[in-house]
Amino acid sequence: MTGSLAPTAWALPGNRAAVHYASTMEPEVTLRTLTTDDLSAVLALELDEGQDKFVAPNEYTLAEAYLALTTDEFTPRVYGIFLGAAVVGLIAIAHQPAENTGEEPFYEMYRFMIDRRHQRRGIGRRALEQTVEILRTKPLGPGSHVATSFVPGNDVARALYLQVGFRETGELDEDEIVAVLPL
């Protein structure tokens, strides 16, 4: 659990003040590799109104990862974003080896979503920071950087990526803005 202690003051007899620290503990945000036990919860995650133009459905993400594994197109890893024991989001990464790209190997973060009921609470930022920490260990092979992309107009995603240290490259991947973070 992470959190803080919030002071609450009240008066005691003799005009003495006492401070009680009430816990504002919030369950810890963790990333875990998804299992079949998590499937129903992941498929039940919902985007906020209008976000479907920015993020593909989780069904698509899971199918894409499966096809990549079976065709050796790239090496995916899909993580559930957990708040305590509850799945509240999904993040998908891929390792792009040099033979696939014609350039130095790198990681790609190709999907990132937080359920609408858990947005605007810092969960996405903590999950993104943990993802970067994992990628710095180069879990699927060597890689110089992590790349991601976002749809123009997705100002929330853009701001989050920039806060965590990603920088826009000026390139487009199809119609999406590319941002990278050195590992």
Helix content: 25-40%
* Strands, count: 9
Order of helices and strands: EEEHHEEHEHEHEE
Q: What fraction of the residues are assigned to beta strands by DSSP?
A: 35-45%
Q: What best-fitting shape do the alpha-carbon axes yield?
A: globular
**Uncertain regions spanning at least 5 consecutive residues:** 1-23
Number of helices: 5
Largest sheet: 7 strands, mixed
Structural class: alpha+beta
Instruction: Determine the mean pLDDT.
Output: 83
Could you explain the architecture of this structure?
By secondary structure, the protein is an alpha+beta fold. 26% of the residues lie in helices and 38% in strands. The protein is built from five helices and nine strands, in the order βββααββαβαβαββ. The protein has a seven-stranded mixed sheet with strand order 3-4-5-6-7-9-8, sandwiched between helices. The chain has a two-stranded antiparallel sheet with strand order 1-2. A hairpin with a 2-residue loop joins strand 4 and strand 5. The model is unreliable at 1-23 (pLDDT under 50).
Features:
single chain, 183 residues, alpha+beta, 5 helices, 26% helix, globular, disordered N terminus
Structure, briefly:
The protein has 183 residues and is an alpha+beta fold.
What secondary-structure arrangement, pairings included, does this model have?
Elements: E1 5-12, E2 16-23, E3 29-33, H1 39-43, H2 58-71, E4 75-83, E5 86-96, H3 98-101, E6 106-114, H4 123-136, E7 145-150, H5 155-164, E8 167-173, E9 176-182
Parallel strand pairs: 6-7
Antiparallel strand pairs: 1-2, 3-4, 4-5, 5-6, 7-9, 8-9
